[in-house]
Amino acid sequence: MPKTYSQIVLRERPIADILPNTFESETKAFDELNVGKSQALVQVTYLSLDPAMRGWIGNTRSYLLPVKIGEVMRGLGLGVVVTVGEGSKFKKGDLVSGRFGWTEYTVADDNTLEKISPPPGSTSLDFLNTLGMPGMTAYFGLHDVGQLKAGETLVVSGAAGAVGSLVCQLGKRTGARVIGIAGTADKCAWLKNDLGVDEALNYKSPAFREDFEKAIGYLDVYFDNVGGEMLDLALSRLNQKARVVLCGAISAYNTSQPRGLVYYQNLIFQRAKMQGFLVRADYADQYPRAVKEMAAGLADGSIQCKFHIVEGLQNAPNALPMLFSGANLGKLVVKVSDEPPRL
């Protein structure tokens, strides 16, 4: 075992963009990690980087309390059990997922850990994407909140991200016409050529607004990951009884003065609905059926995924802002350590 390990804590709350001094690294003595009854010592292998993290380090009312100054940065991750305490339901070598935070090692209560066993056609890393929070968010956001039906028009912002790319694929599996919006030509090409969307629009194109109206006409479901001007534009193109799924507002996370909406009255005129949701709070008891369907898609190749892997815990603070600049393609994760080989 090592003599020390590293963890990254919140140093100060950013006012706008995440800065180099937002976080700081700490070195801790390994022998301070004492494993108690019904606990396990976990070596973290991968950490998920998610847009919601920007909200966690703010100081505004939300669905979770803010990360405290000096506290290990919150985050979902994967790991391997190193040792267990008396009465633990886990054993050495078990692969587990949990809210470990930005650390190389952690002691966790059994009831905060979930043993993972990748089904055929998947890997443990899929539990941070297709079989994890992004996949569950895409599945229930589209099917339960959006209530997408075959033959309808689905528009997805942030379409090349972890959630957006899965929403696009689930939309095609449902039989909808799918238009994805992304910020580079490479992302648009991936959406169209690999994921099979009907149209992929680059929002940075000078002709984007014209392209948007021409490609979409009017939409039935808008799955919103970005908020701001994009959401407002979508509100201007609603069909009657359209559904707007509010999943994220990544364009507004780094500003103290988010842009307001102009076309919200169309929700009235078109008798449309706009709804937010929190997947873990609203649907955790229904995860098994979603995981089963998503795993089947991975196994038969009808659901694809792409990972953007950053090496080393020390690089997590510099990697997180990639989510807000659009520098990542696919699910952004940090590799903290090697995973033991599967038998």
* Global outline: globular
What percentage of the residues does DSSP assign to strands (E)? 25-35%
Sheet of most strands: 7 strands, mixed
Structural class: alpha/beta
Measure the end-to-end span: 23 Å
Run of helices and strands? EEEHEEEEHEHEHEHEHEHEHHEHHE
Task: Reconstruct the topology from this structure.
Elements: E1 4-10, E2 23-29, E3 39-48, H1 52-56, E4 77-84, E5 95-98, E6 105-109, E7 114-115, H2 133-145, E8 153-156, H3 162-174, E9 177-182, H4 185-194, E10 199-202, H5 208-216, E11 219-224, H6 228-235, E12 238-246, H7 266-269, E13 273-276, H8 279-283, H9 287-300, E14 307-311, H10 316-319, H11 322-325, E15 331-335
Helix pairs in contact: 2-3, 2-9
What does this structure look like?
With 343 residues, this protein is of the alpha/beta class. The chain has helices spanning 52-56, 133-145, 162-174, 185-194, 208-216, 228-235, 266-269, 279-283, 287-300, 316-319, 322-325, and strands at 4-10, 23-29, 39-48, 77-84, 95-98, 105-109, 114-115, 153-156, 177-182, 199-202, 219-224, 238-246, 273-276, 307-311, 331-335. The strands form three sheets. Strands 3, 4, 5, 6, 7, 14 and 15 form a seven-stranded mixed sheet that branches. Helix 7 links the parallel strand 12 (238-246) and strand 13 (273-276). The longest helix has 14 residues, at 287-300.
In short:
With 343 residues, the chain is of the alpha/beta class. 26% of the residues lie in helices and 25% in strands.
Question: What features would you highlight for this structure?
Answer:
alpha/beta, 7-stranded mixed sheet, 6-stranded parallel sheet
